[in-house]
Amino acid sequence: MVILADKAKDLRTVFRRYSLEAEPASPDAVIKTGLPSDPNFSKVAKGVIDGDAAAVESSLKAAFGAGIDPLTAINDGLIAGMNVVSDLYEKGLYYLPQVMIAADAMAVGIGVCEDKLGHPAEKKGLVVTHVAEGDIHDIGKEIVSALLAANGYEVINLGRDVPVEDVVNTVREKKPAMVTGTALMTTTMTAFPRIAARLKELGIVIPFVCGGGAVTREFVEAYDYGIHGVKAHHAPHLAAAAVKGKSWKTIREDYEDITGGYAYKW
User: Which DSSP category does 106 fall into?
Assistant: First the structure.
């Protein structure tokens, strides 16, 4: 029995070394690693991570008093904090409620910074999000929308069970850099190729990131514009690539490099 126990311990070490079995992550360790070193920014970031809007507001005002400008506070404090939240979510240490509360705290911080600036902060780009027609499961879409907004993107959140033509018309009228769709069921994800086909008919070329429980790379890459969105926290990275002008084909091909994560599930 002792020999078997020792052998099992040795195998666990091997699995961890080759990423076959990950060590359980510690929230405190993730937060400590991700926090900015400057105390002005670390307090702002920690307020976002904790979902503490009052702490975000007070720490921002203290940072302004120390000569920090609002745009720097947004980038090095608020967004840095939300990046840690994304990391915690990716590692399974945060769930939808924590992400949404953190996003709300960040929104308060953005408002404080905009008041100091005297005008709204410039958005990085526009993204349309929706849940496929016939589908009411919107948890994934809400996380995607929150992470995009928290990373400085303007988000048009169309909601759930969105008709194909509503998505197409919004893209045509608002001209976003990227559109995303989520679907939990195989019966509803069929809306995605119909959206892509309608956009193509209209001559609109746009990265269309599709994800959700039943969605696979094989399905998404069967139609033009489709990019398989594997994880919600990949969305801001994909949006950044779209805003920079990368084509849907390039984003599809360079997914791993763009997101820093694994590319696809089959």
Answer: H
Q: How far apart are CA 83 and CA 233, in angstroms?
A: 9
In whole angstroms, give the CA distance from residue 189 to residue 183: 5
* Whether residues 166 and 194 fall in one domain: yes
CA distance 241 to 249: 12
Burial 28-49 (b: 16+ CB within 10 A, else e): eebbeebbbebebbbbbbbbbb
Instruction: Collapse the DSSP code of 185 into the 3-class scheme (helix H, G, I; strand E, B; otherwise coil) and give the result.
Output: coil
Coil, helix or strand for 157? strand
CA dist 47 and 79 (Å) reads 11
pLDDT at 266 over 60: no
Contacts of 63 (CB under 8 A, 6+ apart): 40, 41, 43, 44, 73, 77
The domain total for the chain is 2
Look at residues 71, 98, 117 and tell me which one is the last residue of a structural domain: 117
Please tell me whether residue 210 adopts helix, strand or coil conformation. Answer: strand
What is d(CA 140, CA 234) in angstroms, rounded to the nearest whole number? 12
Looking at residue 152, what is its pLDDT? 85
Mean pLDDT of all residues in the chain?
A: 88
Q: What is the CATH number of the domain that holds 188?
A: 3.40.50.280
Q: Which of 222, 226, 232, 212 is nearest to 178 (CA)?
A: 226
Contacts with 19 (C-beta within 8 Å, 6 or more apart), sequence order: none
- Confirm if 179 and 153 have CB atoms less than 8 A apart: no
